[in-house]
Structures are given as C-alpha cells and as structure tokens.
Amino acid sequence: MIEIEAGGIASTVQDLGRTGHYHIGMPPSGAMDRYAHTVANYLVGNDTDAATVEMTYQGITATFRDDAVIAITGADMSPSLNGDPIDTWETVAVDAGDELELAFATEGARAYLAVAGGIDVPEVMDSRSTYTLVGIGGHEGRGLEEGDRLPIGDAPAERRELVGTRIDDEDVPDYANEDTVRIVLGLTSYRLTEEAKETLCESEWTVSSEADRVGYRLEGPDLEFEEREQPFGAGTDPSNVVDLGYPIGSIQVPQQPIVLMQDAVTGGGYATVGTVISADRGLLAQRQTHKSVSFESVDVDEAIDARRDQNARLEAIRADIEGEN
C-alpha cells in the first residue's frame, strides 16, 4: 500500500490505455510517454501494461506501508527516499515506512513511478488508466490527493534481485534537447496552402500554457487556408470541415495548432492537417510549457519504421534487464 501525502500538480494512475473503444467516443487515455512507462515497468519486473503513477511537472510525496521494489523514469524530478537522493532509470528497494518525495521537474514534464506488482486499482473497460474528464479508472477517476491509498499488486520476492539494475545511459532520453517530433501530413492538409504546409514544418513552435493530457496548444506563425466554398455540413470557419475522426496525435488547426493527446475527443469538425507519429508522441509529452518544438514531415513507411525501431529498442532493454543478452 502507498499512502499519498501530497499529490503533486497532476498525478494519475495510468497503464497502456483503454483501447478498442474509440468508435464509441472513448479515448484510450494511458501513459503519455509510453517509453518511460514501459521501461519503469521492466525495471521492476512487471509486464508493460502494469499501472504506474504518472506525475506531471511536480511529483508526489508518499509513504510506503509495505516493502516494495520501485523504479522512477521520465522527467527528472529529483526523487529522494527519506531525504536521500535516489537515481532514476534504476531499480530501488523501499522498506515499509519509507517516504518517497519528488520535486518539480527540471528536465521533461512527466515522471513515472512503477512498483513491482503494479498499482492495483480496479480495471474499468479493461484498463486501470484514469480518464479524469468523465471520472473513470485509476483512483476514483481523478488525480491523486493527500490521504489516498494505492494498493500494490502481488510480486514475488525475487523482484528484490533487480535492485540496482540500471539501463544504459544511451537509452535514457535527453528531454532537454529532443525538440523535433516527426509528423505525417494529412488527413485534411488540403485545407492549408502550400506555403502554410511549409510554415507548419519549418517553423519553431512554442508549447503554450494550455498543454495537458487532452491536447498541446502551440504558438507560432499564423497558417493560411485555401479559399473554398463552404461544404454542406461544415462550419463557416476556414478550419472547419465535415466531421471526421481524429487520430491520436493529430494536429488540429483552429488557426494555431493543437496536438490531440491521450485524453482528447475522438472526432469533430476541425481540420486535422497532420499526425505526430506514435514513436514521437512521448517526446512531445515531455516538452515543458514555453519550450520550443519543431515538426519534421515523414511518410507512413518512415513512421512505421520508427515505431518498429522503438519497439526493438524496448525489447533489447527488457532482455538486458532479464539477463537474456
């Protein structure tokens, strides 16, 4: 059991998400940075879809009521155990009564706390992920608060043998300097002028203060739309189209871009002119407010290769941790 003493700014329980319900308007939710979430689980011997605690900008303070094996990955929030600093991207032993404290993020925006056995909250629609907009999943469908008690799943005693395990430095993302995310242009990029498409891909954008699990609103140059005759069923704004489904990571352009993230609506009537590829969504989720970000256009084959490469990298990390290499 983990007893929360301070919930941070926006801390929720997340796993890999609530897939298979997009057609009824249910977004997947799930970890915003799947790479960091997955590595944290590997470091404590969990399956990839075990629930972790996702902490945004400021971490939790919590007391463990049982012995545990933990790992913290993602943004650097200077974690400490009973006041002593502990390393991130490394497996750590915790004794009953120990207090874990994380501070404000210095690099990156989101950190992940994995515990051997996983955070054992009830599943809702086959997932433990929190979707706060409708109040389901996670701990009571909301962010963590003082006094919350999170149950931990059963884990074999052998997990303690992982303590001290650390992934190679080359596998730790450099969140401060990874400011380019790859996109595939479409579905309705035809609404932008050719000059506007170049502007989208060649400009430096700034993450605004409106950046959360629903969407990342970016600030930068205005984008020009092609002249048109308003189609039946679409709104009057140049950015309006006839309603369509929104891919996760799609770039909506009600003038300035908004990248739709894990908790976003699944469809609507704004033009979505590109999609951040799945391998890079975690990098965008780690860009802090007021930091810059740029887009690099790739094709679908390159996007699939990038996802395959990331999966292979994760599999190599898992094999190293489990001693298969």
Account of the protein in words:
This protein is of the alpha+beta class and 325 residues long. It has four helices and 20 strands. Helix 1 packs parallel to helix 4.
Helix-and-strand structural type: alpha+beta
Helix content, binned percent? 10-25%
Number of strands: 20
Strands of the widest sheet, in order across it, are 12-19-16-17-14-13-20
Strand content: 25-35%
Report the C-alpha radius of gyration, rounded. Answer: 20 Å
Termini Cα gap: 34 Å
Shape: elongated
Order of helices and strands: EEHEEEEEEEEEEHEEEEEEEHEH
Number of domains: 2
Largest sheet entry: 7 strands, mixed, barrel
Count of helices?
4
Mean pLDDT score: 96
Report the uncertain regions: none
Protein name: Biotin-dependent carboxyltransferase
Pfam family, one: CT_A_B
GO molecular function: ATP binding; hydrolase activity; transferase activity
InterPro entries: CT_A_B (IPR003778), Cyclophilin-like_dom_sf (IPR029000), PxpC (IPR052708)
